Amino acid sequence: DTGVSQDPRHKITKRGQNVTFRCDPISEHNRLYWYRQTLGQGPEFLTYFQNEAQLEKSRLLSDRFSAERPKGSFSTLEIQRTEQGDSAMYLCASSTTLMDRGHNSPLHFGNGTRLTVT
Amino acid sequence: QQPVQSPQAVILREGEDAVINCSSSKALYSVHWYRQKHGEAPVFLMILLKGGEQKGHDKISASFNEKKQQSSLYLTASQLSYSGTYFCGGWAGNTPLVFGKGTRLSVIA
Q: Which of A33, A44, A95, B18 has its CA 20 to 30 A from that of B97?
């Protein structure tokens, strides 16, 4: 169990540029989640996958955000035409549904990608 | 709608006890508790399922009152290592964990 890894750890970009983040979940985990966290707030749900299927996307999520998990393993989160309000820590987490529908499986978080939009 | 946590912040001396509350306006299948230290990822503490469950882990325990949709996290004989921000999160239907704003706990010597 090598844990959830995210790349890059930090990203500084100019407003209007596109950015892409990668997440590698724990290998046997079939669920993968993306959250966003700003200072002093709890993690805010963005989207999640079960295997390669995207099961839900937050209604608050702009169309500039898109996520993929093409082979049910790693995932990418892309933000197009970044805005200063996109500056945040982007957290990836994974879990398993082997025992249930996922409600009582803990989420394992990566260390996040900190995005700064200038 | 995110769960509401209280208090927002608490300062304890080593050895003191604390209770953190989490209240949801939606019916939850389960409640999760996580602790996040500054600059680190949230770390799982425990899960409580509906049914009035209680759980314990070392000197940290929690309960979930399904009727009131309220969960409480109990920290007993706090240690310096307990410092951090505690988040509750709930599964409602098929929407994954929605987290509260967190409770910042500071334990001082």
A: B18
